[in-house]
Amino acid sequence: MQIPNYQTYMRSVLKHVADGEEHQLSKLINTICDDLGLTQEQRHQKMPSGKQTVVYGRIGWAKTYLAQAGLLTLPKRGYCVITQRGLDALNSDVEINNDYLKQFPEYIAFKERTHTNVDDNKPRQQHSSLENEQTPHELLENTYNTINSALASDILDAILKASPEFFERLVVDLMLAMGYGGTRKDAGQATQYTQDGGIDGIIKEDKLGLEMIYLQAKRYSNKTVGRPEIQAFAGALDMHRAKKGVFITTSSFSKEAIEYVSLIEKRIVLINGEQLTELMLSHDLGVSTKQVYELKALDSDYFIED
């Protein structure tokens, strides 16, 4: 008997958190396995890496997909809480799987972020058949994208749960990781909280401080940053006779805001939530390497005989 795929666990996960309380998923593993009648051998079967059981990994992915579709929320690491959408799904007679989750725009957006190698000109219904035709390397890349997309959502969620001061420190740390500001000590001296019109911090563009970059950080969940806020930031730059600024938000920018920065003389870079998480992943900020897989290729030179 094969171990069920991750979709099979979705209803059982919802069932065991249906009371609306916070639940630590790791403590529900055996109960969920009991629901599905899994043997002890199946429960203890390890992934090829030997670091995690297959069941734990698949239940974890069931939780991730449910959360991406809005059926669960993740209040803190390892914990989940059911939403009204999750209760509605649980009380329905339909099978809860990826096809069911496709009705929710949050899930569609999540899947679209992960299919960077899928031809967007092809209809959505052809994507699943395309996946079946992919080479192992293509499948690996798409799996990598899926994992990183889920991680990006976790990063944004963690930022929104942290304090505003933490977010402002994160912005400085990101600039440092990207090579700006010199040392952490220099950046700390350059960063200042002000009350004079929308400047959250100042950081050196280079180690000598020949140019300064002014920072604005807005921690929004659903609010779009519009042109008026960018104009106010540009006005704050004028007060400091500054030419360069970076406006970072966890949400997004309106079309008018993006058009505005292309029309003015000052150089203002806009970084939205998606770009923020991409930069954090690229520069290893707020994340750690969990596991490394090496892809090896044939060394043809080794087999050349003189």
What's the end-to-end separation, in Å? 52 Å
Strand content: 5-15%
Order of helices and strands: HEHHHEEHHHHHHHEEEHEEHEH
Low-confidence stretches: 117-132
**Major sheet characteristics:** 4 strands, mixed
Oligomer: single chain
User: Helix coverage percent of residues?
Assistant: 40-55%
Give the C-alpha Rg.
23 Å
* Total DSSP E strands: 9
Whole-number count of domains: 2
Strand order across the largest sheet: 4-5-7-9
Q: State the shape.
A: globular
Protein name: Restriction endonuclease
Domain Restriction system protein Mrr-like N-terminal: 6-91
Keywords: Endonuclease, Hydrolase, Nuclease
Region (Disordered): 115-135
Task: Summarize this entry quickly.
Helix content is 46%, strand content 11%. The chain is of the alpha/beta class and 306 residues long. The protein has 2 domains: 6-161, no CATH class; 164-282, Trna Endonuclease, Chain: A, domain 1.
Description:
- The chain is of the alpha/beta class.
- It folds into 2 domains: about 5-160, no CATH class; about 165-280, Trna Endonuclease, Chain: A, domain 1 (3-Layer(aba) Sandwich).
- Helix content is about 45%, strand content about 10%.
- The protein is built from 14 helices and 9 strands.
- The chain has helices spanning about 10-15, 30-35, 40-45, 55-70, 85-90, 100, 105-115, 125-130, 135-160, 165-175, 185-190, 225-240, 255-265, 275-280; strands at about 25, 70-75, 80, 200-205, 210-220, 225, 245-250, 250-255, 265-270.
- A 4-stranded mixed sheet has the order 4-5-7-9. The protein has a 3-stranded antiparallel sheet with strand order 1-3-2.
- A hairpin with a 5-residue loop joins strand 2 and strand 3.
- It is globular and about 70 Å long.
- Mean pLDDT is about 85; it is low at about 115-130.
